[in-house]
Amino acid sequence: MTLLAPASLLRLYLRPQAGRVAWLALLLFGGIGLQLANPQIIRFFLDATQSQGREGSLIFAAGLFLAFALGQQVLGLLSAYTGEQVAWAATNGIRQDLTLHCLRLDLEFHKSHTPGEMIDRIDGDASALGGFFSQMLLRLAANGLLIASILALLFAEDWRVGAALAVYTAVTLVLLGLLPTGMSIWMRRRTWL
Asked: What is the pLDDT of residues 147-179, one digit of tens each?
């Protein structure tokens, strides 16, 4: 059995769940849209307050802010639940494939590794990957989309502020890319299967 790259692993085990993954993407986009809308509502509220705006428009803005904040929380909850479902189904496929792989190994391998050790490794590794799918990868995608959207809004407001923060973001991402990743360390440790 060859060691798959993380992207290949994702494609292999997420492809059967294309509908759930698409639903998850819609939930993420909706949550990000609501996160970006709330500061605009606050800006409208503050501008209307300073210009002695009508009381009705202020109450409407406050209600809209609360509705969007509640919607954002609901979408966050739904995306976390859907992410866990996707991760659980994907890791069950990984568990099944790892178990079949272990059953096909020669007798020497089974003499040197106890059944408890193999169960611990199969279940532990699959659970760790499930946590990676549902937590790390989901948060990374959502935060990446949020940063890109914020930069787009900043460029629309003032291109100089957008450019300065885009440079800052690029430098930060490059510096973070130079750090060793937890996934590569994890993959080096788990090589005996």
From this structure: 999 999 999 989 999 999 999 999 998 888 787
Among residues 122, 125, 127, the alpha carbon closest in space to that of 100 is found at: 122
Q: Name the architecture of domain 6-189.
A: Up-down Bundle (1.20)
Q: How many CA atoms lie within 13 A of 79 on its CB side?
A: 23
Q: Which residue has the tokens 């959207």?
A: 149
Distance between CA atoms of residues 71 and 143, nearest Å: 18
58-85 tens-digit pLDDT: 888 889 999 999 999 999 999 889 988 8
For residue 167, give Cα distances in angstroms to 121, 146, 162, 172, 176. 43, 16, 9, 9, 14
How far from 69 is each of 6, 34, 91, 142, 150, CA to CA, in Å?
A: 34, 7, 33, 17, 17
* Cα(24)–Cα(145) distance, integer angstroms: 13
Q: pTM here?
A: 0.70
Q: ∠ at Cα 95 (89, 96), nearest 5°? A: 90
Q: What is the DSSP letter of 52?
A: T
Instruction: List the one residue out of 144, 47, 134, 25 whose CA is nearest residue 90.
Output: 134
Q: Please, are residues 45 and 61 in contact by the beta-carbon 8 Å criterion?
A: yes
For the chain, the structural domain boundaries read: 6-189
Write the single-letter amino acid at 179.
L
